[in-house]
Amino acid sequence: MEESVVAAVLCGLGAWLPPRVLTNEEIATRLDTSDEWIRSRTGIAERRVAGPGTSTVDMAVAAGELALASAGAGDPAAEAPAVDAVVLATATPDQVCPASAPQVAARLGLGEVNAVDVNAVCSGFLYALATASGFIAGGIARRVLVVGADAFTTLVDPDDRGTVPIFGDGAGAVVLRAGDADELGALGPFALHSDGALADLLMVPAGGAKQRRSDDPRDYFLDMQGQAVFRQASTRMAEASRTVLDQAGWTVGDVDRFIGHQANIRILQSTAKYLGLPQDALVVNIERTGNTSAASIPLAMADAQRDGNLMAGQKVLLSAFGAGLTWGATLLRWPALVGA
Ligand code: UT7
Hints:
By secondary structure, the chain is an alpha/beta fold.
């Protein structure tokens, strides 16, 4: 008898945004910019800000609770949908040390589980999905909570019109369980890449081990070369997407939905163009969220699921690009989710 391949299967989804809305108009009262400029150059109308009193861990716990509930909602007879691992994608942990995933696991009452942070910035959620898939394929875990959460506004210089309009805060989460590669929801293959030689394009210079302290407060904020990042992002997401499509034996024409990292609507549109993907396959929620870094893909998934824009059986391509540089892609056939 042929042995079936153990795959990580998506079976729960949840997302959480902080209530405070920061509109383009409000930014324009403080900085030399306009609603028209921000909308036309980025597709963003508003973003959420976690603000004092709400941390990355708080947001991750809120999204994680919803994902766990969604994973348990399908089968009322099922035991409590506990997981045996938590992988948190974030570039903004509550503290530089320790990692935040153990605090998320403890706050969710998950016991002494395997819990680890993954930092691949805006590609973090894809890297976290791959890490969790590895735990499952390696027999290290059977069910994994994967969270993407970032309070990226804490890294943004409030006086920099180049970055303030772009970034927002939020969290999204999924539950992965061990299953078969031919099931709906099975993830993979993955393409994951990096180019550290271009780290300077998007970097917070101070606060880490290389430069613990700086007299210039701006060194603690994100320094971004927007145009260079823009060019890299579209081509790299298209390349990684092509790799996983080829590996899976899918054509671009097979793809029903493309859920790309929500950095800029123009980046998503040019990625689709490079790939030859129709624009109406794009899942876009950036207008309301801005760029939420590691949270962006699960937030876009949750919005699309809620709006009926993702149906069970649809072929879905995921791709992300971020600081590091890091980028990647994976795919799945969308599962029937309950309560997401
Ligand atoms: O997750 C990965 C993280 N980051 C990204 O993905 C960001 C990728 N990059 C981008 O999304 C875009 O490069 C930006 C949205 C950041 C900038 O858009 P752009 O079309 O590349 O604008 P630009 O940097 O070429 O600037 C065009 C002009 C400049 O003025 P001049 O030199 O032409 O007179 C800027 O000074 O727009 C000016 N500008 C602004 N004007 C009004 C830059 N920011 C603003 C602003 N409001 N907020």
